[in-house]
Amino acid sequence: MPNYSAVLSTKAAKQLDKLADNIAAPIIETIAALEENPRPIGYKKLRGRAGYRVRTGDYRIIYDIMDSQLIIDIITLGHRKDIYD
Q1: pTM of the prediction?
Q2: Which of 2, 18, 54, 57 has a 20 to 30 Å separation from 77 between CA atoms?
Q3: 36: closest CA among 60, 6, 78?
């Protein structure tokens, strides 16, 4: 299986920068794992909006997969209570 490249949107990069290091580290690990397998166990296709989501503790990563270009576009990330607004 070919490796994908994760690309953070400007919004996602800003959200990641705002998080404390102990919260951001597992999220960065999850993003790195998405490059190996963009459809891991527990991922879900979103309803009512384009993309997929994966859980990392109380945080969610919303992303889109572009199989033809081998790119994972990280759209947004944040706490589960705020992410779906």
Answers
A1: 0.90
A2: 2
A3: 6
